[in-house]
Amino acid sequence: MGKVAINFKEGTIAQNKTDIIVGIDLGTTNSLIAYMQDGKAQIIADANDNTLLVPSIIYYDEDSEQIFVGESAKKQLTLHPESTIYSVKRLMGKSYQDMQPNKHLGYTLHPSEDQNIKIKLKDKYYNPIELSAMILNYLKDRAEHALNQKITKAVITVPSYFNDHQRQATRDAGKLAGMEVLRIINEPTAASLAYGLGLNKNENKIIAVYDLGGGTFDVSILRLEDGIFDVLSTNGNTELGGDDFDQAIIQYWEKNQQLIIPIEYKEKNTLRQFAETAKIFTNESGHFSGTYNNQNLELNTDILNQILEPFIAKTITCCKNAMNDSKLKLNEIDEVILVGGSTRLNQVQNRVSEFFNKTVNTNLNPDQVVALGAAIQADILAGNNKEFLLIDVTPLSLGIETIGGLMDTIIPRNSKIPISQARSYTTSVDGQKNLKVAIFQGERELVEHNHKLGELILKNIPPMPAGLPKIEIQFLINPDGILKVKAKELRTQTEQDIEIKSTINLSEEQMALMLIYSIKNAQADLDKRALIEIKNEVKYLIANYNRFLDQNKVHLSDSEKIILQTSIQKLQSTQDYTDKNSIQTQIDEINNSTAPIAHRMMDITIQTALSGQSINNANHE
Hints:
The chain is of the alpha+beta class. It is built from 14 helices and 28 strands. The strands form eight sheets. Strands 3, 4, 5, 6, 13 and 14 form a six-stranded mixed sheet that branches. Strands 17-16-15-20 form a four-stranded mixed sheet, with helices on both faces. It has a four-stranded antiparallel sheet with strand order 22-21-24-25, with no helix packed on it. Helix 5 (242-256) runs antiparallel to helix 7 (301-326) and helix 11 packs antiparallel against helix 12 (558-573). The longest helix is centred in the C-terminal third of the chain and has 31 residues, at 580-610. The radius of gyration is 27 Å and the shape is globular.
């Protein structure tokens, strides 16, 4: 059977239609989109031939109730920092706890029902996937306007250190933006492709990719062999970048040129932009002189290099660590590639060249190199580069059913096979002895819209309180496409498995329709998922409040008992709600009203423990 082309706009299957597959660099500071034109990777430009470099920033205007993305949002950083969202990439696939303490963001993070991150803009909560989808959708719309053609397929890049959760979150953002994400590839791999490395099947090289952007730094050591990139090691600092250079310049001016640093966040941001301008000008011309708030400020090359050196030294330490982890010697590095706008600084280039004892490759625009490489990868996936044999991939995502009929993807669509992926779960009921694992194939958020492949039952789990058992679900696909699913309780090593001979038991037309429906219904599906998840949290809270009431009834006052009982009733009433934000508002109000009670009970528990009563009770038992 031949290939099936999908018209996502019309929701139909069309034969022999050539789609543009774009490459997208979804960056922490800026994002960019590229495509192949006449066999060459090109950054998509607007009608005025300006590069579509889009700041990865989102602003919610309360007056018009509109959301703005890109340059128009960036302008609001100094005016409305509390409603302007930036550095979303740092939040992707992270839990709320991962981001604590959080001192660097001008907006507030909240824990979601599953302890992931959410951000409140007026009366609505958004997660990082939805926010990233806004950036991707803005990129896609501008590119479609520039090319006068619909864009439905993309390759999106991520840092090589991104874990499975972060990669899956990036895939979900692409789908929510109305695109089929054909592949998630590592940024160092994309950069290497942009420089032509890996396009010669007989080329074997060791490549160092030094990536220094506005807010993050990482270095990766890659082995290129027979057209395949292997990440040997990676190291970096997610809190180091060009923004730190700007702040250090400000501190230098404060100490040596009597600069008065403003107190307000808005003015601080304006000053940071002034410092950034000074940095760039000095790097290019050797000397900067300018006026900020009637204060004359200067910067020259020698001073700039002194300011930069402590930060660059930290990146060189990361390079040393990456080399140690790779088990390679410096003389084994064949190419050094620079990525990220901050690598334009002469001092950076000199120090990196000095460390690797090799001239760094600066032939391409460091802001564009990742997007260009993603476009080349997209061209390979489209089958236009006949030198490459496409590796077999999974045609549809594979996962299991979780509470509320949700689909939890373990192996995403288009993953290269053979592959093995595992994820940890637990029980939801006290004393649960058996666990059913239902295996599904498809792209929708609810399993009812996906295709069931089979199920297994993990029996004889030792009875424990809900949440205590640690159960690992592992999916393995061999080179022949045979799927094996294993379920293991890690505390007792109780294990069960099932083998599914074929995961491709649907026709290409059926799979194409599943993809169409998943993208057309992406927002609706995400809303349904969010509603189910928050209702699951409500059930969990009700059980916890009842348990808390029972365990602390001796210490609780009558008024506190009434507050807790009323809270339980309010939570129970939300089961009929159809809006997740209304439920979340109710949860937040209840948490605020019961927090003093919880704190008082915690104080009593601590006092009891310190007095030795809990030890005596334990000994008595």
